[in-house]
Amino acid sequence: MLSFTFDGKESYKDFGLVIVKRPTLPSPKRRVHFMDIPGRHSAVRYDEKTYEDITILVECALLARKNLVSRLDAIKGWLFAAGESDLIFSFQDDKKYRAQVVNAIDFTQVYRYASTFPILFHCRPFKYALVNNMITITASGQYVYNPGTVESEPVLTIFGQGNVTVTINGERIELFDVDGKIIVNSELKDCYDDALQNSNNQMAGNFPILKRGDNHITWTGNVQKIELLPNWRWL
User: Fold this and answer.
1) Mean pLDDT of the chain
2) Tens digit of each residue's pLDDT (9 = 90 or more) over 26-67
3) 166-171, long-range: CB < 8 A, 24+ apart
4) Burial 57-84, CB ≥16 within 10 A → b, else e
5) Which are the contacts of 196, defined by CB distance < 8 A and separation ≥ 6?
6) Which residues does the UniProt record annotate as the domain Siphovirus-type tail component RIFT-related (predicted)?
7) Was domain 4-129 assigned CATH 2.40.30.200?
8) Are 4-129 and 135-234 in the same CATH fold?
């Protein structure tokens, strides 16, 4: 029996809702622009190195011996009130999507105790690791392995004092006047302190990414450790 978890609730256990057939999980489209130039073979390509959102169609059936209408109301309330939430399928329960229900749900009653309907989830381009374990780096020169199929946008918490330079795969991030800790959030493109106060003026350089495979991390300056939340992703 196939089911899904959305906004922390399990479709079958909480609502009697099952997936009729395994949905197709599309890959995101990469944004590449093409321009034809007269007299030139092929087209000029500009690769943004970004991906478009995807949609996943899930065909569902509700099994309810009684109170079918009230259960349908509860399901609609659950799906639409959740907004953008984690979506986890039972057949791949180690990954999650960041998704939101976007379609009007039309119920078709098959029997007195059953109803079928499609759910359309609008998802961000990637699948994410369900378990996003913190990685602690205690010595300059360590490697961190990215098991995903695309680069990740990590969150780095640097514990130290004064001016610090962190280098990941040759890309330098300079941090100034660190007082205890500073947080570099590549997903939000933001730098802040432990009290969430803006610290972007204390950072120079690009927000780091972790490429597929091994990533070499070094630093100079007074750094005690780096805590790295990896945000591994898959296409």
Assistant:
1) 92
2) 999 999 999 989 988 888 889 888 999 999 999 998 876 567
3) 166/208, 166/217, 166/218, 166/219, 166/223, 166/226, 167/217, 167/218, 167/219, 168/208, 168/209, 168/210, 168/215, 168/216, 168/217, 169/211, 169/215, 169/216, 170/216, 171/205, 171/206, 171/208
4) ebebebebeeebeebbeebeebbeebee
5) none
6) 13-123
7) yes
8) no
C-alpha 50: how far from chain center: 14
The percentage of the chain sitting over the pLDDT mark of 70, rounded to a whole number, equals 95
CATH of domain 135-234: 2.60.120.860
Largest CA distance in the chain: 71
Task: Give the C-alpha separation, 66 to 55, whole Å.
Answer: 32
- Distance between CA atoms of residues 116 and 114, nearest Å: 7
Residue 224, token pair as written in the block = 């005690």
Instruction: Give the type of residue at 128.
Output: Y
Distance CA 86, CA 98 (A): 5
Question: DSSP secondary-structure letter at 38?
Answer: T
